[in-house]
TrEMBL record:
GO terms under cellular component: plasma membrane
Residues spanning the membrane: 12-29, 36-53, 59-74, 95-114
Name of the featured protein: Nicotinamide riboside transporter PnuC
Keyword Transport appears in the UniProt entry: yes
MF GO annotations: nicotinamide riboside transmembrane transporter activity
Length: 198
């Protein structure tokens, strides 16, 4: 019992990040705007966790996630036609090329910064997952259903990264995210708007 309590005490920050992260994504799958509130708490905790793990791309990602959460909250409430609630829709095809170019450019730029200016662990992989995650979070905020595909892809990679970095609770969290991605896609598909707005 003492060993378990000691473990909880030494890992309370990561366990808190895991708990708030699961609440956030579960609420997102339900299209509940309170998910953004829990997301803000989770990113604050993970900013500290990733700083300690020297995953600076992921740390910076948390700060941008906070800004994108505020953006997403506004979009979900007022981003629809006539400042009404935003509905689930498909990503317009003309965005695909831009998002691919942004993925390549963002990864290259961030990798250059992390490789030359920090002691980052796994700079290329960290840069790629950071860039893809930012795009997925923006898509979530705009309620493009394809955000779940990107999250599923990048969360698979994150599980491996966090196991490698001995962040086992965070790896578990991203394993749960994989399940939530499938649930989110399934639930959002039921509400998919036939009209795709930009």
């Amino acid at each position: 019992m003492n060993g378990f309590l000691s473990y909880l005490q030494s890992n309370w920050l990561e366990l808190s990040g895991v708990s708030t992260g699961i609440i956030c994504v579960w609420l997102n799958t339900r299209q509940n705007v309170w998910g953004f509130f829990w997301g803000l708490i989770s990113v604050g905790l993970y900013t500290v966790i990733f700083w300690e793990a020297r995953l600076y791309g992921d740390m910076g990602l948390q700060i941008v996630f906070a800004l994108l959460s505020i953006y997403g909250l506004y979009q979900w409430l007022y981003g629809g036609v006539g400042h009404t609630q935003l509905h689930v829709r498909k990503l317009p095809r003309h965005f695909i090329g831009w998002l691919l170019a942004l993925t390549l450019g963002g990864t290259a730029l961030l990798n250059w910064v992390l490789s030359r200016l920090t002691d980052a662990s796994l700079p290329l992989l960290d840069s790629f997952t950071t860039t893809v995650s930012l795009i997925a979070q923006w898509m979530l905020g705009r309620k493009f259903i394809e955000n779940w595909y990107l999250w599923l892809f990048v969360d698979l990679i994150y599980v491996g990264i966090y196991v490698y970095k001995n962040l086992y609770w965070t790896a578990f969290l991203y394993g749960v995210y994989l399940i939530l991605c499938v649930m989110g896609y399934r639930d959002w598909k039921k509400d998919l708007s036939p009209v795709s707005l930009t």
